Amino acid sequence: MLSLSRTAFLEGVDQRRFCRAQRTPAAKVKAGVVRCVAAGERKTRNAEILIEKSADMVDPKSAVSGGVKDVYGEDRATEEHHITPWSLSVASGYSLLRDPHHNKGLAFTEKERDAHYLRGLLPPTCLSQELQVKKLMHNLRQYQVPLQRYMALMDLQESNERLFYKLLIDNVEELLPVVYTPTVGEACQKYGSIFRRPQGLYISLKEKGKILEVMKNWPEKAIQVIVVTDGERILGLGDLGSQCLPVTIDVGTNNEKLLKDEFYIGLRQKRATGQEYAELMEEFMRAVKQNYGEKVLIQFEDFANHNAFSLLEKYSKTHLVFNDDIQAGTGIAELIALEMSKQTSTPIAECRKRIWLVDSKGLIVKSRFETLQHFKKPWAHEHEFVRDISEAVKVIKPTVLIGSSGVGRTFTKEVVETMASFNEKPIILALSNPTSQSECTAEEAYTWSKGRAIFASGSPFNPVEYEGKSFTPGQANNAYIFPGFGLGLIMSGAIRVHDDMLLAASEALASQVTQENFEKGSIYPPFKNIRKISAQIAADVAAKAYELGLASHLPRPQNLVKYAESCMYSPIYRQYR
User: Fold this and answer.
1) Alpha-carbon distance 131 to 138, whole Å?
2) Is position 462 annotated in a ligand binding site?
3) pLDDT at position 449, please?
4) Tens of pLDDT, residues 82-141
5) Neighbouring-strand partners of residue 299
6) Secondary structure of 293-341 as H, E, C letters
7) What share of the chain is helix, strand, coil (3-state, %, to 5)?
8) Which residue from 138, 167, 289, 566 has the fewest beta carbons nearer than 10 Å?
9) Angle formed at CA 260 by CA 258 and CA 262, multiple of 5 degrees
10) CB 241 within 8 A of CB 165
11) Are 301 and 323 in contact (CB under 8 A)?
12) CA-to-CA separations, 265 to 192, 262, 348, in angstroms, rounded
């Protein structure tokens, strides 16, 4: 395995073989210098790599077993000078153990240790990947603080990528609350303190005018999905594979606490708005297409509403984009209306009248129409204005109550008891994340409804015992839908996102809920089956893309579920020659 890189070194190479490959006389190797050309430069840049460490170069004054002398005074002479940190990377020996994409740790076989110069660099034991997973789970369970588990997992991802994903896949129900909500919320809040090494691109106002150049610095070229945030309403991105690029657009912050924090690693200025913000986003969206092509999928994540809706509206016409926050906010209402219209053959405008929205000011009604944001206007119905949610529940008498505002504790005892007073099985969905922002807890929903509520939440809650019966609350978060949704778009080569695709994904998820799940009080399938669930969602989304004429990968695969499974990332170790 031989590759050119900017950040590694030459080691473990047969010198004569290397010299032949580079057409460099062996005499020059013996003299201690190999000349190589760094890849990707328009002009030739020669880098000299010292590979000989003879006895007369050892410094006897070194504190630990001697060190290499600065024979020619090069280190001292160049302390104040600029140098070029380009070198040749060989995925063998010590550098292989430091490469997270290829490192297998103690799972390297005896043959691989011989072939790749690993003898003496590892303890003698060879472990299977399964035993590595078992050992790591044992270690993780020793941590009492969730953030410590999160940091340990991030360290693993940075040292052994396949083992990280194998661990996560095999123990997804236990580890999801660590790499996702609620722990990731704390990780975001303390990001500046726990930051170790970058795992994505950081594009700030300082890069304005050269965003395309910045994108070319990212080492992975086969990018199919970009998850981008401007950090204004952070809840967490989750974890991403190598064909998925996380991007932070840093336009400053209005958080005074962060601006005064000496450890804050973001752009230390007030948040940019208006034309300055729009121009930066326009340059970013243009650069994405230039660098990764027309069909790269862009997910807008954790943008505040005033930007989220305008960005989605503008770029959905020219890019393959979606935003799970708003297409799971007012988007929930629209999808419910679409499904009602589909099942009843009722005009969608009439279906919307059966759905009521409450915002920070109160019930959305016609008398507020002129002051409403444009995305709320379809939901303004004829009714007297009601200021708070408790009163709205009393007068509207809904069968389903859905919270997705990010404001915690809004489903009070009075609200839940009122829902239970006119519904035999009130449906209570407290979807806001993290746990502290949940509209109510599972225990509160079951207790206040006297065990009759059908409950689900965005953040996980433990099973609840009520009057001798056990209830297992479902977790309703985007980890169910959007990995499979994104896969369906990619494998079909979709050129645009259509609402019918989101509806197809929702229907695919609902179809996998069993009667046994219902009897336990859960309206979602077990998350341990997420890869099977995601394959079915991907297949149904792809089928809808083909049906709508929006798919570009032709011909259509005969079995979309099997094709989806074949497209999924496998964390199993590869065997090296």
Assistant:
1) 11
2) no
3) 97
4) 655 554 555 789 999 999 999 999 999 999 999 999 999 999 999 999 999 999 999 999
5) 227, 322
6) CCCCEEEECCCCHHHHHHHHHHHCCCCEEECCCCCCCHHHHHHHHHHHH
7) 45, 10, 45
8) 138
9) 90
10) yes
11) yes
12) 6, 8, 47
Whether pLDDT at 35 is above 60: no
Quickly state the pLDDT bin for 354 (edges 50, 70, 90): very high
Residue 256 pLDDT exceeds 50: yes
**CA pair distance 480, 137, nearest whole angstrom:** 23
Q: Taking the domains of the chain in order of start, what are their residue ranges?
A: 93-190, 193-325, 330-477, 478-514+525-576
Q: What is the mean pLDDT of the chain?
A: 84
| Confidence band of 247 (pLDDT split at 50, 70, 90) | very high
- pLDDT of 71 higher than 60: no
Q: Quick one: which of 496, 503, 506 has its CA closest to 549?
A: 496
User: CA 494 to CA 504: how far, in whole Å?
Assistant: 14
pLDDT at position 520: 80
Question: Is 301 assigned to a binding site?
Answer: yes
In which element (H, E) is residue 363 found?
Answer: strand 362-363
Residue 148 predicted with pLDDT over 50:
yes
Beta-carbon neighbour count of residue 515 at 10 Å? 7
Q: Most confidently modeled of 39-48, 431-440, 563-572?
A: 563-572
Q: Which of 328, 276, 274 has its CA nearest to residue 300?
A: 328
Q: How far is CA 124 from the centre of its chain?
A: 36
SS3 sequence, 292-306? HCCCCEEEECCCCHH
Residue 325, marked binder:
yes
CA distances in angstroms from 205 to 189, 212, 227, 496, 572, listed in the order given? 22, 13, 19, 29, 40
193-325 and 330-477 have identical folds: yes
Distance CA 423, CA 401 (A): 11
The whole-angstrom separation of Cα 338 and Cα 351 is 8
Non-local (6+) Cβ contacts of 516 within 8 A are none
| pTM, two decimal places | 0.80
| pLDDT tens digit sequence for 164-192 | 999 999 999 999 999 988 888 888 888 88
Determine whether 259 is exposed, middle or buried from the number of CB atoms within 10 Å of its CB (0-12, 13-18, 19+): middle
Residue 477 annotated as binding site: yes
| Residue 353 CB neighbour total at 10 angstroms | 12
Class of the domain covering 330-477: alpha beta
Distance CA 415, CA 419 (A): 6
Burial of 7 per CB tally in 10 Å (0-12, 13-18, 19+): exposed
Backbone φ and ψ of 430, nearest 5° = -95, 90
Does 139 appear as a known binding residue? no
Lowest-pLDDT choice from 325-334, 401-410, 439-448: 325-334
Q: Is 239 annotated as a binding residue?
A: no
CATH 3.40.50.10380 is held by the domain 193-325: yes
Residues with Cβ within 8 Å of residue 221, at least 6 apart in sequence: none
Give the percent of the chain with pLDDT over 70. Answer: 82
Q: Which class is domain 93-190?
A: mainly alpha
Q: Spell out where 69-153 has E strands.
A: 87-90
Q: Which of 327, 311, 328 is nearest to 319 (CA)?
A: 311
